[in-house]
Design goal:
two-stranded antiparallel ribbon, 9 helices, alpha/beta, binds 2-acetamido-2-deoxy-beta-D-glucopyranose, globular, about 240 residues, Rossmann fold
């Protein structure tokens, strides 16, 4: 009998071989639907767009928007007052909530013409500056958010609404954490409900896609906002030493 069973089990296991991947898969994620499996993978919250052949290629595309003469004219004229007033409301609210104070040293990352900086200064937060690939004196200095031109622990507060432009989102966040003082606050405006434009370098599908990148900070607040196509405000505070 034993001699007969051996080849039987051998043949049985051979016939099960094609099913092995399915058997293993259902065993490692018991009771979880495929849709849930996809959304629990961290990389599914945030996807970097493919198609840039080099960093220079990526910079060229970003500069193309920043240097577009028609956009720059709009940003500095009919857009200016409206943007400054909306940013002023955001920053006043953040100050009321204790995330920003009059003596905060503040940086706006990817500030274009500097409307955010104008808003901060109008509120009396005078130690504020913007940074972008193209400088816009006196409000915005030249700098790449993948490699900020500032020393460690330079700022108490950093704001950005250009997270979707980051080709290396992990470096974007790492540079913010490096230049923030312990206890400092980072505020990001991001979009979850719609896709960015053709200048976007990544697509975000859930808050966790950003928050997981902040290794040295804690999420302090999340709320819905209406910020020029960006619908979600994240407030993160860098842990104290
Ligand atoms: C750059 O922008 C100009 C308009 O300012 C456009 O004509 C041109 O096609 C753009 N080039 C690339 C590579 O996107
Ligand atoms: C600002 O001033 C307050 C009160 O004088 C002080 O407690 C705080 O540490 C200062 N710095 C920042 C970044 O708020
Ligand atoms: C901050 O500055 C504004 C404008 O200069 C002023 O109205 C406000 O009282 C200041 N707040 C504090 C806590 O000093």
């Amino acid at each position: 009998m034993k001699q007969l069973l051996k080849p039987f089990f051998f043949l049985l296991s051979l016939s099960l071989l094609p099913l092995l991947p399915f058997l293993l898969r259902s065993r490692s994620y018991p009771g979880v639907s495929l849709a849930n499996q996809i959304s629990t993978s961290p990389s599914a919250f945030l996807q970097v767009r493919p198609g840039f052949r080099s960093y220079d290629d990526y910079l060229k595309l970003q500069l193309n928007k920043t240097l577009n003469p028609r956009l720059r004219r709009i940003w500095s004229t009919r857009d200016w007052a409206r943007k400054v007033s909306v940013f002023s409301r955001f920053f006043a609210d953040l100050r009321d909530a204790g995330f920003l104070s009059n003596n905060s040293s503040a940086l706006c990352v990817g500030a274009r013409m500097g409307q955010e900086v104008a808003a901060l200064r109008a509120l009396g937060i005078s130690d504020s500056i913007g940074m972008d690939l193209v400088p816009a004196s006196p409000l915005v200095v030249r700098g790449d958010f993948h490699s900020q031109p500032f020393a460690d622990a330079s700022f108490d507060f950093e704001f950005s609404n250009v997270f979707d432009h980051a080709l290396y989102p992990d470096r974007f966040v790492k540079e913010i954490e490096r230049t923030l003082r312990p206890g400092g606050v980072c505020v990001l405006h991001v979009t979850l409900s719609r896709r960015g434009d053709r200048y976007s370098a990544n697509d975000l599908f859930a808050v966790e896609g950003v928050t997981a990148l902040f290794r040295e900070s804690d999420l302090a607040r999340v709320r819905k906002v209406d910020g020029f196509g960006l619908d979600t405000e994240l407030v993160l505070r860098r842990r104290s030493a």
